[in-house]
Design a protein that fits this description.
It contains 14 helices and no strands. The longest helix is centred in the middle third of the chain and has 19 residues. The two termini are 34 Å apart.
Length: 256
């Protein structure tokens, strides 16, 4: 790290207003405990962007993440509020960009703290869904992500019936509007967690088997993520009292 810091400092001196150099140096200072220097660079980084722009909002996201690492939750909260005020200017100007920015911020935890993360995320996802359906409808490219976010958040709060409903709806629109990607796997995983928690093991086995086939096709039969789905299938079989079948899946998962 000391050598990396030396090179990063040299880069910053040669090109003092380059965002990527400032961001990298701030990150490295955090790693070695030079928190004051890191905080100074975070402020410098933000000021490189014009206030009110989406680029400025993106810089605030970076700043919030680093300030949370530094433990300065007060300043992180201030920048979170500034982020929200910035993107809200795009509500009427460009609803899709506003929603993109809001969904990303929710997923990255930009607008929440560790203490209020789940409840605040639910509030934000509800707001995003209401705005999306009023302005753009289900044609919005991240509609399924909002639905999935609501489903996963409700599940975390123990409301499994609403969790299942939103996740199933998200899967419907993920199938319809998007190619196979990580988002679909997360929906399958969320449904598996719901069904496991309510002991609907047949349904849990069904969605996990579908997830397993999906990741096998996407990433191959020797990928770690495929192995993790086999492990989950094995655990579900054991929960159903079919431990012999379960052991076979777990053994294959360990082999991978």
């Amino acid at each position: 790290i000391p050598r990396a810091i030396k090179h990063a400092e040299q880069a910053d001196q040669l090109s003092p207003n380059t965002p990527v150099f400032i961001d990298s140096l701030a990150f490295l200072y955090i790693q070695v405990g030079k928190f004051d220097k890191s905080k100074q660079l975070i402020g410098k980084y933000i000021n490189l962007f014009e206030k009110g722009t989406l680029q400025y909002a993106g810089a605030l996201t970076v700043a919030v993440h680093k300030l949370k690492q530094l433990g300065d939750l007060g300043l992180a909260s201030k920048y979170s509020d500034e982020y929200l005020k910035t993107i809200e200017k795009y509500k009427d100007r460009d609803p899709e960009k506003y929603l993109d920015s809001l969904v990303i911020a929710i997923q990255m935890g930009t607008l929440t703290t560790q203490e209020n993360h789940v409840k605040k995320s639910l509030e934000l996802y509800k707001s995003a869904l209401s705005f999306c359906e009023a302005k753009l409808g289900n044609k919005y490219k991240k509609y399924s992500k909002i639905l999935a976010g609501l489903g996963l958040t409700y599940s975390q709060l123990g409301n499994y019936s609403k969790g299942e409903a939103y996740l199933q709806k998200a899967l419907k629109y993920e199938d319809k509007n998007a190619k196979y990607d990580q988002a679909k796997f997360e929906i399958y995983y969320g449904l598996k967690e719901v069904y496991t928690n309510i002991r609907a093991y047949d349904k849990a086995l069904d969605v996990t088997t579908r997830a397993s086939e999906f990741v096998k096709n996407e990433y191959g039969s020797n990928s770690n993520v495929y192995g993790s789905t086999l492990r989950d299938i094995g655990f579900i079989f054991c929960a159903m009292g079919k431990c012999e079948q379960g052991r076979k899946y777990v053994a294959e998962a360990l082999r991978i």
